Amino acid sequence: MSGHAPVVGANLVGGDWVQAASGAVFGSVEPADPRRVVGTFPESSAEDVRAAVDGLKEAAPEWAATSPECRASILEAAADALESRAAQLIEEMSREEGKTRAEASVEVGRTPMNLRFYAAEAMRSGGQTFPAANGTLVYTVREPVGLVGAITPWNFPLNIPSRKIGPALAAGDTVLFKPSELTPLMGQRLVEALIAGGLPPSAIALVQGGSTAGAAITADERVDAVTFTGSTDVGRAIHRQVGPDRRVQLEMGGKNPTVVLADADIEMAAAIVVKGAFGLSGQACTGTSRLIVVDEIHDALVDAVVARAEKITVGAGLDPGVMMGPLASESQQRKYREYVAAGVAEGAVLRGAVSSIDGPGYFARPVVFTDTTPGMRIVTDEIFGPVLAVQRARDYDEAVSLANATGFGLSAAIITRDVGRAMAFADESRTGLVKINQPTSGMAMNAPFGGYKASSTQTFKEQAGASMMQFYQSEKTIYLTSAG
Hints:
This protein is an alpha/beta fold.
């Protein structure tokens, strides 16, 4: 990297920083300029995963016996460590993942808040008592589920791991963490902060690498629970492999609609849509990928959205004035280009110019398609890039029908002044998240997060709410009667 020496990363296995048993490594590069190397990291195999599980199983009883106060203080101290390194993390995240400085700043700022939230959960974990006959005391206790395998994506490389590792450690579980191979440095930085906060290195393992390492984690039956955020195809494969005997939490894809009714303010609606569709370069699972507009304002709203999209400055995330960074990888850029070509080939109308961007990076410009039909790939498939498909609706009822006509069910939004219509949409939307006069993206850290249909396992939700901690704990019911 220009002005930055490449990092030499490592796995954390059995409490020690080590390289892969095979010695294999892979490189992480800057998506804004792939000629610049972020660092080299271990390319882990099943052998490395087995060693990590061995160490975590050995450490599990001691960590489980650690007091809730101690677990909470460690998470608080780790949050402090992250905050003390915020400037460094913002730069590194932008270079490794491609986020703009503003986007990286939001994530780096939110991650310590997550850890503090889960620190408080460590202190709130309790059971219940139940009335029973004949003087019997019936009560429940919550225990650590055991060893949690956390497999996380690249688009939120600190925030999402903290939402998995934080509650697991708060519950007394040991954690086997595999970050995305596109953002290994951010994964290592999070683990370093936890250890700086006082976490025993034996209570967490970091295994870097790609799908081989991920498959070994889910295949190892000693891993008691698996939490995964990523694509629906991979999530379904994990679900099959984990089976009914172990616990699994999956947060997967989305094809999120924003419905705009005739009473909406055009400029306000356009701003909301553009933020949801093109923020984070269109690489948020909750991002807006479909815009459903009623006839009366369709043309005016599309014009306003296109005008705003054309003003978005694309470039390296750390450059001044840049509003949208590169896509995260060459494969993401190739996928974007394939879907743009598919939209044109299937008869959709491409609004605005898709000109090339100077430089070697994985850049993409915001794209708006109109005149789409329900069967087009740009309407049905999760693209995970800055591509917005516009659908025209006759009225509210057709708009709701189009919004629900997808195999996904993560997030949906409606823009309207009519409170009654907004509340009806909230009832009728088949999604786990509904936003009213807000972008489909952007969630509160203390609210439940999860989807319907192919967007989630629909069992344990991620982020917050009662089921968040329940995933990381087992509940035991005890019946006590005096022997005397």
